[in-house]
Amino acid sequence: MADVVINGLIEGGKATGGPPFGPALGPLGVNVTNIINEINAKTKAFEGMKIAVKVVVNPSTKEFTVEVGSPSTSALILKELGIAKGAKTKDEVVGNITIEQLKKIAKAKDASLYGNTLSDKVKQVIGTCKSLNITVEGVNAKEAMKKIESGEIKV
Which of 20, 26, 90, 154 has its CA 20 to 30 A from that of 100? Predict the structure, then answer.
């Protein structure tokens, strides 16, 4: 029998035996509690954020694997700054982020960012800061990118 794949979007660390996983896992005869506990353990770091989770079950052996996706760059930035959402208008600035925080986010998103260097990846995260209207080290995102390219800000 082929593996069964169940995809769902849950809040980090808060999966339950209800939808989307419980009703799909129950008929497979697997221990739903064990799977939910593993999902919660693997997503605890993303508390407060929606995260994609994929459960692959082999119905004959009852073995399973849990794969956790990565939250969006904007979700990581907002969590890092402790704010709920980006700016409503282009004149509103909702926060300021440091290069250290940007490096942490770039490392967390490493697999899904393009670029060969940490500096390239940090610049991609800064691009998201621009759309959220978040300043970088006290200057607007475009200015911060220029400072990184000129070497004025070291990554």
Answer: 90
The residues near 80 (Cβ < 8 Å, ≥ 6 apart) are 97, 101, 104, 105
> DSSP string covering 82-104, please?
T-S---SSTT---EEE-HHHHHH
Domain with CATH 3.30.1550.10 in the chain: 4-68
**H/E run at residue 22:** helix 22-25
Q: Where are the beta strands (DSSP E) in 12-149?
A: 50-58, 63-68, 95-97, 134-136
pTM attached to this predicted model: 0.68
- Give the residue carrying structure tokens 């209207």: 133
Three-state DSSP class for residue 137: coil
